[in-house]
Amino acid sequence: MNPYIKTVTTKTKKTAYLIAIGGTGMGSLAGLLKEQGFTVTGSDLEVYPPMSDQLAALGIEVKKGWNAANIDNPDLVIIGNAVSRDNPEVLEVMRRGLPYRSLPQALGEILVERYPIVIAGTHGKTTTCSIAAWILERTGQSPGFFIGGVLKNFGRSYQLGSGDYFVIEGDEYDSAYFDKGPKFLHYRPKILILNPVEFDHADIYRDLAHVLSAFEKLLTLLPKDGLLVANWDSENVRQLCRQPPCRLIRVGFHPEADLQPTQVDLKRGVSFDLLMRGKNLGRVTSPMMGRHNTQNLCNVIAVLLDLGIPLAEINKSLAEFQGIKRRQEILLEAGDRILIEDFAHHPTAIRETLSAVRAAYPEGRLWALFEPRSNTTRRNFFQEELARAFDLADEVLLAPVFRPDKIPTEERLDPTKLVTDLVAKGKSARIGTSIDDMVHIVAQESRGKDVICLMSNGSFGGIYPKMVSALQPNP
Predict the structure, then answer these.
(1) Residues 300, 354 within the same domain
(2) What distance lies between CA 97 and its chain's CA centroid?
(3) How many CA atoms lie within 13 A of 258 on its CB side?
């Protein structure tokens, strides 16, 4: 167990330094450590909202760039998973023999005395975690949580909490250059929600079989008296759960599911009847959009019902759930045009996001602006799948591939081919020459009742405030 984390409340001064503090996970850990009493500082090449806002609100100093001189004399160093062993700050930590951890190692040590509720899968982790954390909070459980997005109800992405439960995203990405296993192997789940599983993270996984092998290891961590809630609509999840290690609740639209949504209404939110093994438990209503969020809601409700929380209390809490920044977040309603930001960066997530927005706003044209930024979508592994992901969009605008020089030419996504394939299917599609060009196109060509959806897992070149400014109605 990490002695620095464990003894912080009994010692007067502890300091932590986070290398690559600007990521959603590292920024959240910074908040958790500060809540435990640490004095926290860190560094990064780039920090952007919402984490930049969260760190500033916490009064945490962020040093720009990597420099050995940034390392003072911290009691604990956390090294982010995007940081290489030849980083000058890492080299200084090693030279001086300072104690260090990966983010998941530090979190795993915090979880030792808690009851971890882990949400894993390729899609929906942040949303599912956020719903679970809010309802547990609203029903008096005071949960801890650690989530890769800022919850609007809390104004932050983490909470230590005083209750037993700790809700955490179980990410399959590796932990650090010195800790190459998936992050979720550090989290010791008592309850595991398994969302849909697909191929992702092409920079560390060879193929789907390699991805599934990581999840197989996660399932072995469940205790016999644990609970596994599985999205039964995912074929890969069904394969993983053929021999469940503990009690299993199957959730989804699939006819074999134990908990099923029915009579689903997707207009301006989701509403559905909830069936438990054929028995109607009642109606569920949420302002969240889309079929995929219906599945996310059902997964959470399965856990909460199992913990003894009545459906009436769940519904009351859902009515007050304000959502997560960067997940179907409405940035602006400019007259009758609507600007929405989403974190979608996998073909399935893009398709589901556009499907949800189309169902919620069927009247106008749907604009899809996408930045190929993740380690998977910068590669051509999903070249064909991306051409299908935009089927519901009326206008598609692609940003250039983010940092293309970091991807070998033969592996790199070809945006020109993607546009050609989309145009061949009858889509209006083009590549923006720059962020300012994309903003100009939307400002000039969008019209009444259009919905503009911005999708990236990063800063998208600063497009968000520029687009808000360009679409603001003239006073």
Answers:
(1) no
(2) 34
(3) 14
Query: Strand locations in 308-427, DSSP E?
Result: 329-334, 337-342, 366-370, 395-398
Q: Are 231 and 252 in contact (CB under 8 A)?
A: yes
The continuous run of DSSP H or E covering 185 comes out as none
- Structural domain span for residue 150: 114-319
In a domain, 162, yes or no: yes
**Which of residues 102, 132, 151 is at a domain's end?**
102
The pair of structure tokens assigned to 440 is 């100009």
Q: What is the CATH number of the domain that holds 453?
A: 3.90.190.20
* Bond prior to 223 in cis (omega within 30° of 0): no
- 279-309: pLDDT as tens digits: 999 999 888 877 888 999 999 999 999 999 9
Q: Give the pLDDT confidence of 330-356 residue by residue, as tens digits.
A: 888 866 788 888 877 788 888 888 888
Beta-bridge partner residues of 397: 369, 430
The 10 Å Cβ neighbour count of residue 441 is 17
Closest residue by Cα to residue 398 from 377, 425, 381: 377
Residue 109 within any structural domain of the chain: no
Structure token digits, residue 11: 């010692």
